[in-house]
Amino acid sequence: MAAEAARIAGEARDVGAVVTFAGICRGDGGRLAALELEYYPGMAEAEIGRIVEEAKARWPLSGVGVIHRYGRLEPGDNIVLVVTASSHRGDAFAAAEFLMDYLKTRAPFWKKEHLADRAGGWVEAAERDDVAVKRWSAAAAGRR
Amino acid sequence: MKILYFAWVRERTGRAEEELAPPASVTTVAELMDWLKARGPEYEFAFADAAAIRAAIDLTHVKHDAPISGAREIAFFPPMTGG
Fold it and tell me: What is the ipTM, given to two decimal places?
């Protein structure tokens, strides 16, 4: 993670702020044995690319990086990494939140839980994520 | 056109993808879902709640009223849980 952040920040000029977010597989106190992430090859890359371009259009970013893993993950493993670099921290923080809100609702990945003691199931999309992503539409409208 | 299914939509239809040729009367994503439902009980089960299904045409999210003409690849899946 530190290496990725350094690479993204190092490629740019005038970097005053680097924000790094890591989404990690939670163990839920031993309940979860593993998480299986299914994804849509082709669309995942395209959608992540679109989300990154949208972030670059909204904020002055010197660098952006998104890494999203798929397949079998265990508690403690990184699932997603978002790095944003900018001259000022406000833009770096906002862009990182924006990227995560959009990744949560638009990136074609689906999590299936494998529990420690019984069969698991597909994780359901959280309403709070749909609520969170809507604020960026309102914010964009407010700026015009 | 290639139809792809993901997550529990894939589990319910029993397949990850297939090559299909819907009739010309099927012009939108919603109409395609109705046409797929008629193909068998597993499809009926997968598409029972249309509001719960998301769609993408040629790697781009679309609404259910989107036209399907010219589409090379249409995917159906539940709301996403990445990130």
Answer: 0.95
